[in-house]
Design a protein that fits this description.
Elements (H helix, E strand, L loop, with lengths): L1 H59 L4 H20 L16 H70 L4 H24 L21 E2 L2 E2 L2 E2 L11 E4 L4 E4 L2 E2 L2
Antiparallel strand pairs: 1-2, 3-6, 4-5
Keywords: Signal
Length: about 260
């Protein structure tokens, strides 16, 4: 009787160990998945922050656009007016000297008018081109930021793809404990089946008056038992029997009715 109980106890202990290792394995998987998710959240957050900084910088380029355009107009105007110079006559273009003061004064007046016209045209051209020049500079920087944002989008997608692999790997974090859980689960089934399969219900026996030991209520009539022990009839196999105590039927095992 002790050997079957030992087998059953060993099986029960192995089953408990299997449950413990299975729980440990699941804890390891959950921890690995949590770490993978947190790492991905951190990467995505850093990339989002970088993209937000680029967008904020792009929007700030249009702030004070009018003031910036005035500065660009002045810069362009000065550049064009510098080409006019101070009215210096270029080599090979000088007029023959005149002995007439009237002619000389007229030449000076014409030169002054030309220089003033050149200055006015340079300033006008600077004002005209300032908008396009400033917008072109901004668009050049915007295009560069757009390329950077596209790269960040690629990084985000790549990180998400890698995270899928990380989560798959996290599912194997508890493989060692899973293996032990499977081993002890199998041992537990073997032990319980071996132990419980060898345990037989004991014959409670009969009292001197023919009643069953431990039974409550009458179990015999005229000194003869209502149920018979297994094997009481030659060649009769043990089978369940039913007897009535007067209130409710009771099921017995290892006995048969005669």
């Amino acid at each position: 009787m002790m050997v079957p109980l030992a087998w059953a106890g060993a099986g029960l202990g192995s089953t408990l160990l299997s449950s413990m290792f299975a729980g440990n394995a699941q804890d390891e998987v959950n921890a690995a998945r949590r770490d993978a998710v947190n790492a991905e959240r951190g990467r995505q957050g850093a990339l989002d922050q970088e993209a937000a900084g680029l967008n904020a910088g792009a929007l700030s380029r249009y702030a004070g656009f009018g003031t910036k355009m005035e500065g660009s107009a002045k810069t362009l105007g000065d550049f064009y007016k510098s080409a006019v110079g101070a009215g210096t006559v270029l080599p090979g273009t000088a007029l023959p000297a005149s002995s007439s003061d009237l002619v000389n004064r007229e030449i000076d007046n014409r030169m002054a008018l030309s220089r003033a016209f050149g200055f006015q045209q340079g300033e006008a051209k600077g004002n005209l081109q300032s908008f396009g020049d400033l917008l072109g500079q901004i668009n050049l920087k915007q295009a560069r930021d757009a390329g950077a944002l596209s790269q960040i989008g690629g990084y985000k997608k790549g990180s998400a793809d890698v995270n899928a692999l990380e989560l798959d790997a996290a599912g194997h974090a508890g493989d060692g404990n899973k293996f032990l859980a499977d081993i002890f689960s199998g041992l537990g089934k073997v032990g319980l089946n071996a132990g419980l399969g060898q345990i037989e219900l004991l014959d409670p026996g009969l009292n001197l008056d023919g009643s069953i030991v431990g039974a409550m209520g009458p179990t015999s009539v005229g000194g003869k038992p209502l149920v018979w022990p297994a094997g009481a009839v030659a060649g009769a196999p043990a089978s369940p029997g039913v007897f009535n105590t007067g209130s409710a039927p009771l099921q017995t095992y290892g006995y048969r009715t005669r």
